[in-house]
Amino acid sequence: MASAYHEVYADWKRDPDAFWAKAAEAIDWYRRWDRVFDPREDVYGRWFAGAVCNTCYNAVDRHVTGGRADQLALIHDSAYSGKVTRYSYAELMREVVATASALWNQGVRKGDRVIIYLPMVPEAAIAMLACARLGAIHSVVFGGFAARELATRIDDATPKIIISASCGIEPGRVVPYKPLLDGAIELARHKPDACLVLQREALRCDLIPGRDFDLADQVARERAAGAWVDCVRVAATDPLYVLYTSGTTGQPKGVVRDNGGHMVMLRWTMENEFGVKPGEVFWAASDVGWVVGHSYIVYAPLLAGCTTVMFEGKPVGTPDAGAFWRVIADHGVAGLFTAPTAFRAIKGQDPQGSLISGYDLSKFRTLFLAGERADPETIKWAERHLKVPVIDHWWQTETGAPITQNPVGMGVLPVKYGSPGVPMPGYDIRVLDDAGHELETGVLGNVVLKLPLPPGCLPTLWGADKRFRQAYLDEFPGYYKTADAGMIDEDGYLFVMARTDDIINVAGHRLSTGAMEEVLAEHPDVAECAVIGVADAMKGQVPLGLVVLNAGASREDGAVEREAVTLVRDRIGPVAAFKTVVIVKRLPKTRSGKILRGTMQKIADKEEWKMPATIDDPAILDEITLALKARGIGL
Question: What are the boundaries of the signal sequence (predicted)?
Fold first, then answer.
């Protein structure tokens, strides 16, 4: 069918308030808004000011009362245990209410924070919805983060309760969570009132009397008692959650998501952008610790009355490169959303796609890729073997939903390899030079979004309005800085080329090299260091540490390198994929002392580079080149 995109985008641009007011009719409100958008509120304005709502009610309760009580809401598929657990909307509501009652009994009230530190288990989604039911603010922390990272988030969010598990499961190993949780609480200045711990059979743990409680026991008691908890009415502008994303200083940024605008945007995207209708099955193969898991495992599919799949497994190795096809076939998945890394892994294990023919993919319509740059060869491989549209799209933790997309729900536009599509309604994308002047079509520059941001985007950072302005708004007045570099072509397609700060993208996970540098600098033999992201065929990017030793350090280089790698993996966690440290004599710097990370990255990636005009000593780049080549990097 012909795409309606251009007409829909023009409708939004002509009257944004009317456009989003119409979209908001898909949401149930206790009280409607005074203004669709109020530019006078907070940093750049707020959406649906004056409205009163509840996200849990819209995601669960209204489907139970509206005829979907027996429809599947959540399918949890664990490749590790071989078990599949299914929840109808009625069953999901029962579990959410019981969990909310357990939290209420621990003193959790509207506005309190709850940290959720869980693996990919159904209890994670249920806990998020239970918090939303109470008007409490959840902050999910990815289970792969180490104790210090968790402690930083505890101190920033100051949670009343932490919900965790005894362990997580990875291919070939069990990851104990309880020692990480205990270590984080010990490190943190803020101490939670209690911890609710899910005991998993793969590795049970000891509970600390008076502080730790068995989550399953608490929930079972409330369920057996027939406990009921009403949905707490909250302002549309009240926070639903805080999700921490890497900051350029190593200090994480708490992205705030509101209730009202978030629901309106996510509900709209399911049909219009992803082309998935109520009752159909959608699968986001991500983790609930990342924004994709928040938006497209938990909230968007449930708000739309779809069935969502939650998968505990990997694209390869659980048990083979056919795992994704098995899940799609078993559960009748219509749309899959994953990172390009997953498909590079599958392609590497099964280059001919021979495993695909063993599964019934007749209900599968669309593959969506995001989280990192999707290379054309991976897209072509997926198109060739799956014979469905492969849609690359682009967004950020801060936006909560796609900025650019090829909106299949409005009719597919021509695919341009290397581009994540065209701007979605709500986004006026511009490309500016460093001085803030708009650039011509096809010219690389700073990708920015004209204010105001649409519904669902962050209104600020948790407890840090000033930092929010400094990080996103001050450099280009009137615009939100994405910190990505790119260009727009003559047809309006965006091409995102690179990050403009020190955030690297490891298998779809945004990680701060600054945070890794802070850890490396703690090694007693390290004088200074730099971490850069280098291209990796499987993960997109991997971190590389360059280290200068203290004068007089007599240790063997190899021993220091191994210790430095261990230090980062212990502090940041395995998610960092930090495996390589190269000891160098000096780091290249500008005359003002700024380390030239971008130039070193180009050398490591064998890209063409020019001598920086501000470099202090050009000979250092020759030293770096030789040191990298000696380790097989940049050859």
Answer: none
* Strand (E) or helix (H) holding 90: helix 89-105
**Mean local confidence (pLDDT), 496-508:** 72
Cα separation, 580 vs 561, whole angstroms: 8
Longest distance between any two alpha carbons in the chain, whole Å: 74
Residue 198's identity, in one-letter code, is L
User: Which residues, other chains included, contact 305 with Cβ-Cβ below 8 Å and sequence gap of 6+?
Assistant: 63, 68, 71, 278, 279
Residue 218 pLDDT greater than 90, yes or no:
yes
Q: Which amino acid is at 264?
A: V
Token pair for 237: 């502008």
The string of pLDDT tens digits covering residues 417-427 is 989 999 999 99
Per-residue pLDDT of 360-410, as tens digits, reads 999 999 999 998 778 788 898 999 999 999 999 999 999 999 999 999 999
Which residue's entry shows tokens 């994709």?
292
Q: What are phi and psi of 502, to 5 degrees?
A: -100, 25
Q: DSSP for 565-584? A: HHHHHHHH-GGG---EEEE-
* pTM: predicted TM-score of the whole model, two decimal places: 0.86
DSSP string computed for 237-253: TSEEEEEEE--TTSSPE
Omega before residue 423 within 30° of 0, cis = no
CA–CA dist 181, 159 (Å, integer):
13
Torsion of CA 413, 415, 419, 421, to 10 degrees: 20
Identity (one letter) of the amino acid at 10?
A: A
